[in-house]
Records
---
Amino acid sequence: DAGITQSPRHKVTETGTPVTLRCHQTENHRYMYWYRQDPGHGLRLIHYSYGVKDTDKGEVSDGYSVSRSKTEDFLLTLESATSSQTSVYFCATSHHGGSSNYGYTFGSGTRLTVV
Amino acid sequence: GENVEQHPSTLSVQEGDSAVIKCTYSDSASNYFPWYKQELGKGPQLIIDIRSNVGEKKDQRIAVTLNKTAKHFSLHITETQPEDSAVYFCAAHITGNQFYFGTGTSLTVIP
């Protein structure tokens, strides 16, 4: 995961505050994804992007928004953080996206705690 | 959508023994099945994958088998070593769709 950097690595925030997580890649991959990881649920897709300014919702998108203004950066924003959004967030990239069967490259994750 | 179930959730084995993790999927259109290893504090890393036109694939001590009729696939690790201790995730993918992940198996290899 050397080509994918997530920031911050850890964050504690208060309920109701906005939070932005950043994913930066040097892989020049077209497709980028945000997942959350919770015990008993595995990895669940929040949002994904198939190109600059092209994004779409995943299965757990409520309360989250994303933006992608450059190929290398994919931002995840919690407009008003809630305790249910306490989780570990992973960014992933893929060169081929869903059109071909290739695995993802994951970042190291951001541990977010909402108090 | 696709539903992937993974068992067991935890697994402990003695060093040198084999470990087997099993996954089932619900959508017969799934045609790609990767396995990921996640070490503590790190992101998941792809370790092996199999496509639906293949029944088995090996890479040194790890192997994956696929039974399309029964809709299940398994990860086999032989001659386990302490560095194999991690959380393992299976996933199923339909071309043009997203990946669906299992809930993970925490493997502990006891020296």
Note: The longest strand of chain B covers residues 86-93.
---
Amino acid sequence: EAGVAQSPRYKIIEKRQSVAFWCNPISGHATLYWYQQILGQGPKLLIQFQNNGVVDDSQLPKDRFSAERLKGVDSTLKIQPAKLEDSAVYLCASSLGSAWTLHFGNGTRLTVT
Amino acid sequence: SQQGEEDPQALSIQEGENATMNCSYKTSINNLQWYRQNSGRGLVHLILIRSNEREKHSGRLRVTLDTSKKSSSLLITASRAADTASYFCATVLQGGSEKLVFGKGTKLTVNP
């Protein structure tokens, strides 16, 4: 089975610029997650989708972050405008359902200068 | 906010030795999961233990869960250099959106 695909792998931008990340989950997985992982810390959930509906976005900084899940499959996460503290790895994961085991992509490493 | 707290933060052992990592959490859970993350990669699921289970095995991995103490441990037996990675516990909280909340992880180094 193909894994979770993410792109780009790396991105360097200046503060106040915008950036977008893309995720293609495992086929058939209803639940999709975006996590932010700052260096040396565990992943922090930003947003959780069930099909194309949002289940939890309580930790998403909605003034600058947005996410959508197109037709319940692919997803994009956008940051506009970026701040220095947004430098992190952004991990996408998918699962068959909530509370099941997660399958992660390799992430996008974002550096904001 | 972080639910799980792994201990120790870092662990360095020799190949062939056993490695034990602990996880403590704060609120009631449905299940607890352990994940491994190699440097520069995504997380890989290792094992899931439900709240009504006390112990689970998978190959060289042994996980225990003590819900009265709100703690879990991951034991890796006969460690190998390839086990070098960060290990995270993650809990699914009872009620709410069933989201998975990760701890800060234990960085394990296995020296050849």
Note: The CA atoms of residues 4 and 25 of chain B lie 4 Å apart.
---
Amino acid sequence: AQSVTQLDSQVPVFEEAPVELRCNYSSSVSVYLFWYVQYPNQGLQLLLKYLSGSTLVKGINGFEAEFNKSQTSFHLRKPSVHISDTAEYFCAVRRTDSWGKLQFGAGTQVVVTP
Amino acid sequence: DAGVIQSPRHEVTEMGQEVTLRCKPISGHDYLFWYRQTMMRGLELLIYFNNNVPIDDSGMPEDRFSAKMPNASFSTLKIQPSEPRDSAVYFCASSQFMGTDTQYFGPGTRLTVL
């Protein structure tokens, strides 16, 4: 089985400041890694995903994430946030070797203030 | 495409009543997922279908919950009888493939059982 740990439940940040959301995973086999965002009163939408290849993945809205296999991490970053980035962010993993389910972390609430 | 469509968006019912949630996946998507989101348990996968066939229902909490997919463009999640602890936001998602593919989420149904 695999598991996902999001180390911060809430991250307050000022507008135009950088933000990093931490995600660690555990799995006995290779995994695919995803970051989803949930804006208030909406469903989740994909920000980015790591499948293979370059460990630095760029997504929508200026977000990027780096896959670190040795540290089993997939941290999400944005160099300068906007008020509109206020949302909940979910890290998720899925095994590469089966029809495995997408396993979500508990989520990190990002609150951007002026 | 209109995206994943869910109805109703909000449902308030009394304990013991039957509740039916509806989902229309994105056309051409072969996989359909039902999730439940609560503060306590986060985002949980309840069941998923492939080509209208239920593949894994191990996340369905108990026999009061049932899900069907009579055709490629419609699925229901039914709770009978409903209980207050079923109060949550229920999401439907669809994807074209499993594995590497992105899941597209609907806006969710907020269920309140009094």
Note: The CA atoms of residues 12 and 111 of chain A lie 5 Å apart.
---
Amino acid sequence: DAGVIQSPRHEVTEMGQEVTLRCKPISGHDYLFWYRQTMMRGLELLIYFNNNVPIDDSGMPEDRFSAKMPNASFSTLKIQPSEPRDSAVYFCASSPTSGTVTDTQYFGPGTRLTVL
Amino acid sequence: RKEVEQDPGPFNVPEGATVAFNCTYSNSASQSFFWYRQDCRKEPKLLMSVYSSGNEDGRFTAQLNRASQYISLLIRDSKLSDSATYLCVVTPRSNFGNEKLTFGTGTRLTIIP
């Protein structure tokens, strides 16, 4: 069974360029999460979706960041324009709907973004 | 104050030893607790949930102390493969089955042969 798929795995770009990160969640999962991980701040939730609808985007750092989920099998995180401080590993995770406390989020391998 | 605080380590422990980590959380309304494991340059993966009564999974034991707002992870008979960063995770619980997770910055563990 395929896990969460992210692309690209690595991205190097120059300041001011647009960056688009892509995610395919596990089939049948209703929740999709975008995280950013840095050494200084650890893993931070940026935004999450339920049934393709954004539920909480309070973690999105600023207007330069936007996320979409046009269907149940695809989501994008876009940064425009990119800045060096956006350099981080961006993870996508998905989770099924469940009423138990053992909900698990399944993470993709991440996209390592470097903005020069 | 951070919502979830962990000692970043590193903890360098000889193989076979027992090691314990603590994690404190600031939101007393937090209802679900987890330990995730993250290997170097890999994604986080769920290690175990933490229940109010404490729970054990093989060599791993997790405890929750709501009064003091901390959770702990104990690893017995440590193996080289236990080397990783351990992330403490808490979440409030609503009527939905899932909520956003708040991660600690992690405790780095290295098992020495």
Note: The radius of gyration of chain B is 14 Å.
